[in-house]
Amino acid sequence: MKFLHTADLHLGRTLHERSLLEDQRLMLDLLIDELGKDDYAALLIAGDVYDRSIPSPDAVELLGSFLAKVRRRFPDLAVIIGCGNHDSPERLGYGDKLFSSLGIHIISDPEHSFEPIIVEKNGERSAIFVLPFLTPGSLRDAEADKEEGGRPLRSQKELALAAAARLEIARTRAIAEGALSTILVAHLFAAGGRESESERSFLGTAERVDAELFKSFDYVALGHLHRFQKAGKSTYYSGSPLAYSFDEADHQKCLVAVDVRPNTVVEISRIPTRPTRRVTRLSGTFDSFMAVNAYLKEKEDYLEIALTDGQLVENPLALLRTRYPNLLSVRQDTALAAVGALELDGRASVQANRGRNVADDFSEFLSALYGQSDEKKMDLFKKIAAEVDDATT
User: Fold this and answer.
1) Count of other CB atoms within 10 angstroms of residue 93
2) Are both 145 and 209 inside the same structural domain?
3) How far apart are CA 362 and CA 365, in angstroms?
4) Domain count along the chain
5) Per 3-state DSSP, what percentage of the chain is helix, strand, and coil (rounded to 5)?
6) Which residue stretches of the chain have pLDDT < 70?
7) Which residue range(s) make up the domain with 39?
8) Of 128, 77, 137, 86, residue with least CA distance to 107
9) Dihedral angle at the C-alpha atoms of 42, 195, 276, 29, nearest 10 degrees?
10) In what order do the strands lie in the sheet with 302-307?
11) Which are the contacts of 380, defined by CB distance < 8 A and separation ≥ 6?
12) Can you state the angle between helices 375-392 and 358-370, rounded to 10 degrees?
C-alpha cells in the first residue's frame, strides 16, 4: 500500500515580509499532480498546515481549494491531517466530523489519537493513527486518579510516554482486527533531529521526544523539522515542501513516497519539489553585484545577499533591488564587524586620552574625516568654542 507523506505546509507564511501564498498555491498544485502519478492510498500531512494559530482568510481559502481539488480528482484517496504546534486545534479541527464523512480526516484533539483511521486498497488494510502536537494538559494520566478523571500531564516526556503506551494498545488491537500494517502520523521534535531557522524550536532538550517510543509502527510520518531526515526505525521527517528561511537554501526539499508491504521492509523514495522561485544566499562585494552581467541565473530567486565590503554601503537594499527584484535581505556582517572594532578602539582611545580638551578631539575628527586637520577650520572652531564658554559662564 502506498502513501504520500508531507508536512509543514505553513500556509500563509511570509519570507522577510514577502507573501509566499502564490508559491504555496503552485506547490499544492504540484502535490496534486504527484498524487496522480501513482496508486496512492492516502495523503499524510503531519501538521503545521497553517503558519499561524489564527490563519489569514487567504490561507484558509487556499486549504479549502486544495482539499476540494483533491477530492474531485481522487474520490477514493484518504486525506489524513494532523495538528501541529503552529495550528490552532479548534480552528484546524472545525468541521472535522463532516470532513471525515468525505474521506478527509483531521485530527486535532490528542484524545482522538487512539482510534485508527482504516484505509483499504487492493485487498490490503492499514490502520493509521494520528498524534497531534502535544501541549501541557492535552492528555491525562487516567491511572493516577481514576475517580477524578486523571491528572493532566505537563512535560513532553510524560505526554509522549503516555501517548506511546496507549498507542501501542490500540495498534495491537488494530492488528488483531485485521490490519496488515500500522502507520503513525505525528508532529513532534524527535531527539537528535536537525532544526533550521524557520522552526520555532524549543529551548534546550527537555521538550524533545524519543522516536524509539513508536518503533512498533511499520512507518512513522513526522512533521515539525523542515529538513528531510531519518529519526528512527522507519521514522522520517518529510521536511517542508518549500524553504521558509535562508538557512534552508541548501535543503533538498521533497515529498516522501512510502510503500508499506506486509512482512517486508518499508520502501521510501524522495520526490523533489521544484519551487517557482528558489531561496538563495549569495556573497560578494557591492560592485560585483551591480556589474552588468552579474548573477544572471539567480536574478529571479528570493535572495539574501551578504556584502563582503570592508565599509558600510548606504541603503544597499534599495540600490540592489534595481537589479534583483526579489532581493529580500542584505547583510553587511564584514563592515559591521569593522565598525565594531573601530568603536572598541575609539573607546580605548577615549580612556587613554582623558583630560584632553575639545579642540584636540575636533582636530582628530578632522583628520579622520579628511586625512588631515585644517588650520582655518580649527581657528573657527576655537572661536565658536570660546563664545560658547563665554555664554555659559
Assistant:
1) 19
2) yes
3) 5
4) 2
5) 35, 25, 40
6) 141-150, 197-206, 264, 340-356, 368-371, 390-393
7) 2-272
8) 128
9) 10
10) 279-284, 302-307, 327-331
11) none
12) 150
